[in-house]
Structures are given as C-alpha cells and as structure tokens.
Recover the amino acids of this structure.
C-alpha cells in the first residue's frame, strides 16, 4: 500500500489543527527526537513539519529572538515525508538511491534567503 506524504498534526503538541508548515532539509531529520530508525537517504522529496498557531508563534520567537533551533523537540512521528520503498511498491520497480543534494541545496538556499529577509515572521509554507 502506498502511504505518500500526508498532512500531520503539530509536531510539538499533536494538535490536529495546524496553521503553518515548513519544509526542512532531509538530513535535518536526524536532529529530530526519536529519528534513529529513519533512513534519511531513502526519503523522496522534502520533509515537512506542521505547527499549530501557538507553537508556530513560539518557534518564531525561539528562532528570531533567542537564536535557538527547536528542531530537537519535534516529534518525528509527526513529520511528513515519503519513503523510496513506498514508490517502489506502487510502481513495482526498484529505483536507485536518490541523490538528495539538489533538494537539500534548494531548501538550504531558500532558508538563508528567508532568514535574511523581513518575511520570516509571516511566511506559512516553504517551497
């Protein structure tokens, strides 16, 4: 059965009513709590984390005012991503291990541009 990327509850408090989503570089999933069993090289596409309104405000304050990265507190079970094996099962073919450098470079470049702009407090979706 194919289980592609789905909308998830807030990655901090499990609130199903989310208002914001960010896409993070694939390798960043290793920093998320309880991510030891996730094979990041088998992820296809971006990793998305979702936030409720209250936690989105908190994350914004932590990042912009305190200069702290709260990624270690996110719940990997609430991250949204697709695994290569799901695509292989859907298509009934085996694919080569994906090259993640292009996706990671795009997400990192976008994050740098966003951090340098005034938009960081109002953005809702990255890429």
């Amino acid at each position: 059965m194919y289980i592609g990327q789905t909308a998830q509850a807030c990655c901090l408090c499990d609130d199903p009513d989310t208002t914001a989503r960010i896409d993070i570089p694939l390798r960043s999933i290793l920093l998320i709590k309880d991510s030891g069993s996730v094979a990041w090289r088998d992820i296809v596409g971006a990793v998305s984390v979702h936030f409720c309104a209250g936690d989105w405000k908190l994350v914004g304050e932590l990042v912009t005012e305190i200069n702290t990265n709260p990624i270690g507190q996110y719940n990997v079970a609430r991250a949204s991503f697709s695994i290569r094996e799901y695509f292989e099962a859907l298509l009934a073919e085996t694919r080569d291990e994906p090259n993640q450098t292009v996706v990671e470079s795009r997400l990192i470049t976008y994050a740098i541009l966003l951090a340098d702009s005034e938009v960081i407090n109002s953005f809702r979706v990255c890429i």
Observations:
- Residues 119-127 have pLDDT under 50 and may be disordered.
- The first strand starts at residue 20 and ends at 24.
